[in-house]
Structures are given as C-alpha cells and as structure tokens.
C-alpha cells in the first residue's frame, strides 16, 4: 500500500497486490475497511487525546460489511413440520409399512417391523419411569439392534448416549458414572461381563431383535423387573409430550485437551438440523443412505434419523469395514447408495484407491470432521462427476453441523469455504475484544441460534 498527500491537501492511498494471492473484490473490501478505520480514528481524535485511545476503542468493520453479515445471518425459518421428529417418522411407518427401512448384511427390517420394535422398547422405557432428560447408554457395535435401540429411546422421549464397546474400560466406566445413565443397553454378553463387574449399579441389559415369525425384542435380564408398580404405558393412546429443550442425545468429547466432557443436545436443535437437511438435500422413497459413521461421532445422528423421516432406506455397514475403500465401493454399488458421508482424509483415500467409479445412484457426498483440501475436491469431480460434494462444518457443542457449502470446482480463488449458516443459526467472526471482523479478516468463530448445545453435563 502506498499513501501520499495530494495537491488539494487530502491523503490518498493505492494498493498493489499479487493477483495469484488476492482478488480485486478482496482488495476492494480491504480498502473499504481501511478507509473506515481511518475515519473512525479521526472521529475518536475529536473526543480523546491520542495517548488515551486504546485498541478497544477502534472499529475496523465498516457498515457495508455489517449489513452483509447481518444478511448472511438472516436465517430465520419457521418449519411447518410436527414439533417431534418421531411424529414425522411415524408417518413413514404408515406410508411405507411393507418397504425395507433398515438393512444390514443379509438382514432386513420393514418400516412396519421397525415401528413394532421401537414401540415395544419405548413403552418399556416409559413404563419403567424414565422421562425426558433421562439418559440411556448404548454400548454397541453397528448392528440392527443398535439402530432399533436408539430409535426406541428417542421414541420414548429420553436421551441416548452412544459408547464405543471397543473403548478402554476405564473410559466407559468414567462416562457411565459421570452421565448417571439410567440404563445401559448392549448387544453382546461380553460387553456386559466386561463392564458390570466394576459398575456399582445393576443396570446393564442385553438386547436382541427377533424378526420372525413376529418382530419382538429379547431383553436380558427381564426389563419388566424395573417397571415396579407402573402399568405398561400405551404410547399409541398416550402420546409423549416433548419439549424443545429436552435432551435428545449426549456425545462425549475425546478428552484430547483434558477430561472428556458430555455434550447434551436438545430435541429442538436436532429437529432444526434434520428439517434443514431435508430442505437442502431432499431425499425420499427409493433413496438409500449408508450408515458407516461410528455412533460416538455426531455425524451418525443424522444417519440414524433422517432416512426414516422420509421413507428412505438405511444400510448399515459392517463394523470395522468403513476404512476399507474397496469393500466400501462394492457396498455402495451393490446397495445403490444415494447419500454417504466421508471424513475428508478417508474420502481422499477412497478416491485414490478406486480407479473407475460406477455409482449412478449417488447424489450427495457429505464431507465434514476435518478440513477439506482443494486437491480432494478436484479429484472428486474428476472421478464422480455426476454427484455433488458438500462441505459441512460444526462442533459437537452444536447439533451436528452449523454451516454448509456446495463445493464448486469453478471457485475462482480455490479456497474451501465452510459456507453459510444453516436455518435459525448465526455465525460471527469476532476479534479478541468481541467486535465483528471485516469480511475476509480472520478471527474467532462464534455460533448462535437454536442449534447450540444445552451445555456440558454437570458443567452447564
């Protein structure tokens, strides 16, 4: 930047820049911010002595930028759907009763069977005295039982908390104690034997799904023993009242920066996220989603619920195979997968290993969890040109994702964006003093809106 005093006594500035690093548009934004900064200093100098001016007095974000940012954050959306996501799922139970809802290997469950199994579990949970905000732990590998259990917990209006059965015993024990989980559901006896010895509560239960001749749940020991004096509640006659602020699920952080913390997300946040996703990437009967994300990562949350809300089928990938690109490709081809999620590093490996792609049914590939590189974006469109790649961003402390960007291979500056905020959510880039940064200037990301988590368990 060069500055000089003109013949008229005014000061003028000019910018020189490398076009390979900056666009004309970004330099224009920078010049607007710089001019506003100078004008703001001038106005302050009329009120304060120079020695009394502190950095918190200064403003560098011009009104034009504030107006744009407010426009981007104008995401208000009033969805007309039912207030409880399971009400929407029940519509699919009726409309697609004979169609496959869930497949795993050679096993399959129709929407009617899924209705009966989740209803049975939900009624048992409610009859045993569990209500909103009660946490039920799910310590299972990917399986039909895992999905049925999670759906049954949500149908009961409780909160599910997924745990990896292969995690260290100490971590699982710590989480169960910290969360004060009312019940712990497992799908292998080995898990119960391994963890019940050191657990002070006798609250571990083994769940098995029986699909023939009639769908039913085998729960060991008999869960009826905890119903006490309650009568079996008929949820069809006594619908559950769910508040938007009730807990829907709890996911514990990795603990890489200290002690793992349980993040509690609400039904209102989950509902908003799922309805936004359907509006953004609509699915329906005939679509097949692949469930391959470990349940302890929040991406799995939309995999568990979104397909059943709109009559699609969910295919569960066998445990430990989500990292095998060749097996993954075979499954995607065999099952006619239309929507799948990849962490960017795994997506790059997948695209590199498979030479020729024939996935005619694949519509959307969702990428999140890490930074997506431009190299991976270009490789994606070279090999899977008929599909759309989407880059989503969101911390565990907000329901799954808070922003999205439809990856554009023709992006002029080859920058990967986290995109714009989802419905009823706001994103702000602030400086250390809590003031809005100009467009294009780095800062700290602040998230607002309905999708914020309710807080950390025992440390709100």
From TrEMBL:
<dbReference type="GO" id="GO:0043041">
    <property type="term" value="P:amino acid activation for nonribosomal peptide biosynthetic process"/>
</dbReference>
<dbReference type="GO" id="GO:0031177">
    <property type="term" value="F:phosphopantetheine binding"/>
</dbReference>
<dbReference type="Pfam" id="PF00501">
    <property type="entry name" value="AMP-binding"/>
</dbReference>
<dbReference type="InterPro" id="IPR042099">
    <property type="entry name" value="ANL_N_sf"/>
</dbReference>
<dbReference type="InterPro" id="IPR020845">
    <property type="entry name" value="AMP-binding_CS"/>
</dbReference>
<protein>
    <recommendedName>
        <fullName>AMP-dependent synthetase/ligase domain-containing protein</fullName>
    </recommendedName>
</protein>
<dbReference type="InterPro" id="IPR000873">
    <property type="entry name" value="AMP-dep_synth/lig_dom"/>
</dbReference>
<dbReference type="GO" id="GO:0005737">
    <property type="term" value="C:cytoplasm"/>
</dbReference>
<feature type="domain" description="AMP-dependent synthetase/ligase">
    <location>
        <begin position="94"/>
        <end position="457"/>
    </location>
</feature>
<dbReference type="GO" id="GO:0044550">
    <property type="term" value="P:secondary metabolite biosynthetic process"/>
</dbReference>
């Amino acid at each position: 930047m060069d500055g000089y005093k003109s013949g008229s006594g005014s000061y003028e500035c000019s910018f020189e820049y490398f076009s390979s690093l900056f666009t004309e548009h970004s330099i224009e934004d920078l010049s607007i911010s710089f001019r506003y900064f100078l004008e703001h200093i001038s106005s302050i100098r009329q009120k304060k002595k120079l020695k009394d001016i502190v950095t918190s007095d200064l403003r560098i974000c011009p009104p034009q930028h504030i107006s744009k940012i407010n426009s981007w954050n104008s995401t208000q959306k009033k969805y007309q759907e039912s207030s409880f996501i399971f009400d929407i799922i029940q519509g699919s139970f009726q409309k697609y009763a004979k169609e496959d809802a869930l497949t795993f290997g050679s096993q399959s469950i129709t929407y009617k069977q899924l209705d009966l199994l989740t209803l049975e579990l939900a009624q048992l949970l409610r009859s045993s005295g569990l209500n909103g905000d009660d946490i039920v732990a799910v310590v299972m590998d990917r399986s039909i039982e895992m999905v049925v259990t999670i759906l049954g917990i949500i149908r009961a209006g409780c909160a599910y908390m997924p745990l990896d059965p292969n995690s260290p015993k100490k971590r699982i024990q710590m989480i169960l104690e910290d969360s004060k989980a009312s019940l712990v559901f497992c799908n292998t006896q080995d898990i119960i034997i391994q963890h019940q010895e050191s657990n002070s509560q006798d609250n571990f239960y083994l769940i098995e799904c029986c699909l023939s001749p009639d769908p039913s749940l085998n729960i060991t020991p008999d869960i009826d023993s905890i119903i006490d004096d309650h009568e079996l509640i008929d949820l069809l006659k006594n619908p559950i009242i769910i508040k938007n602020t009730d807990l829907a699920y709890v996911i514990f952080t990795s603990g890489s920066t200290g002690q793992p913390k349980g993040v509690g997300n609400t039904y209102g946040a989950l509902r908003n996220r799922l309805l936004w996703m359907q509006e953004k990437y609509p699915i329906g009967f005939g679509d097949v989603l692949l469930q391959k994300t470990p349940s302890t990562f929040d991406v799995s949350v939309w995999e568990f619920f979104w397909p059943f809300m709109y009559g699609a089928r969910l295919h569960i990938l066998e445990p430990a195979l989500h990292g095998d690109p060749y097996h993954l490709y075979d499954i995607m081809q065999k099952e006619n997968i239309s929507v799948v999620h990849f962490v960017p590093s795994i997506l790059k490996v997948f695209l590199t290993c498979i030479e020729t792609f024939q996935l005619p049914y694949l519509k959307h590939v969702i990428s999140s969890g890490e930074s997506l590189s431009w190299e991976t974006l270009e490789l994606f469109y070279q090999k899977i040109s008929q599909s759309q790649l989407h880059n989503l961003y969101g911390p565990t402390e907000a329901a799954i994702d808070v922003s999205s960007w439809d990856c554009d291979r023709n992006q002029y500056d080859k920058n990967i964006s986290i995109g714009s905020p989802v419905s009823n959510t706001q994103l702000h880039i602030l400086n250390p003093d809590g003031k809005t940064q100009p467009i294009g200037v780095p800062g700290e990301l602040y998230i607002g809106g309905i999708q914020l988590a309710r807080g950390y368990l025992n440390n709100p």
